[in-house]
Amino acid sequence: MYKVASLFCGCGGADLGMLGDFEFNGRYYDRLPFELVFATDICPKALATHKLNFKSDNVACGDICDISSADIPDHDVLVGGFPCQSFSTVNPTKDPFDDRANLYKQMLRIVNEKRPMVFIAENVKGLMTLYGGKIFKKIVSEFEDCGYKTYKTLLNAADYGVPQKRERVIVVGIRRDITKEYVFPEKTQQKWVPLSDVIPQLAIEDKKYYFSERAVLGMKNAKNNMKRGLAQNLDEPCLTITSHLAKTSLNSRDPVLLVDADKELYRRFTPREAARIQSFPDSFVFAGSEGDAYRQIGNAIPPVMFWYIARSIYSFLDNSTK
Question: Domains (ranges, CATH) in the chain?
Answer without folding.
Answer: 2-192+301-321 (3.40.50.150), 195-276 (no CATH)
